[in-house]
Amino acid sequence: MAESKPKGPAAFIRPVLLVMVLGVVAFFVWRNATRTEGYTGGDVTSTGTVEAVQVQLGFKVAGRLAEVSVAEGSMVRPGQLVARLETQDLDVAVSAARATVEAARASLAEARANLIRAKRDFQRQLELMKSDATTTQQVDDARAAAGVAEAQVAARLAQVRQADNARAQAELQRSYAELRASTSGQVAERVHEPGEMILVGTPVVTLAELDTVKVRAPVDETRVGAIRAGDAVRVRVYTFDRRWFDGQVTDIQPAGEFATRKDWGAQRRDIRTFTVTARLPNPDHLLKDGMTAEVTIHPRPTGEPLVGGRR
Prior knowledge:
Blueprint (H helix, E strand, L loop, with lengths): L8 H26 L9 E15 L4 E6 L6 E2 L4 E5 L2 H43 L5 H40 L2 E3 L4 E6 L6 E2 L4 E18 L11 E6 L2 E13 L6 E3 L9 E11 L10 E7 L13
C-alpha cells in the first residue's frame, strides 16, 4: 500500500483565497442592492472658500483723476475720501451758475421796486379820480402798468428759481468730484491711477468688506435638499484650526454645477453639486478673502423655526 504524500501549503491557501474572493464579491453585490444615496440625517460637511463682499467705488461724473488717497491693503471708514477728480471745469461751472443767480436776484429786486412804484402810481390815480383831477385813461394806464410790473416780478422770480436750481446742480456735480467710501473695509485694489480719464461709474477703488464675510461651499444633490436658508453653519480655517466661526445659510444655488461623481458606464446616477452660501460675522477680521474653509451645516428638522424666531 502506497503512502500518501503530505499536502503542501498551497493546498490550504487556495480554499482560503477562494472564500475571500467569494466574500468580497458577495459584499459588493449586497452593497449595490441595498445602497441609498439620499440624505439620512445629521450634519452636512463640505470644503468651501471665504469670500469678502466686494464694493466697487466710482465717480458720478466723468473727468481726469487727480489723486487716489488710499493704498492697497489700507483700512477705510465710511465717508473717508478715497479719490478726487480735477475740478477746473467744474469750478468754472459753479462760478458761472452763482453769477447767474446774483444777476437774476438783482433783476428781481429791480422788478419788485418797479412794481411798488407802479402800485403807488395806480393808487394815486385812484385818489385823483375822486376829485376829477385825472382822467379815466390815466387810471387805466396806471392799472395796466401795475399789471405789467407784477408779471415782470413773477417772471424774474421764476428766473431766480431756475438759476438757483442750476447753481445747486453745478455744486452737486462739483461735490461728485470727491469720491468717498460708502462703507468700512479694506482697499483690495486701486483700479486706476492719477492722470487717467475716468468715465461715469467706472470703478476706481475696490473695497473688501470684512465685518461680515461669505463662505461658499459645494454640497452634492443627495444632501442639499435638507439645507434651508437660516440653517446654522460652523466654519473652521487652517490658520485657526482650533477656532470655530458661526454663521447662517443665506442662499442655495438654484442650478447644479459640476458633478462630484460621473458615471461613464451608466450604472449609477451622476451626482451634481449646488453651491451653498453662508454669511459669518467677522468683527476681528480674522477671516480673509480666499481662505479655504471646512464647513459644517446643521440642517434643522422639518417644522423647526429659523434662528431668531423667523420662519
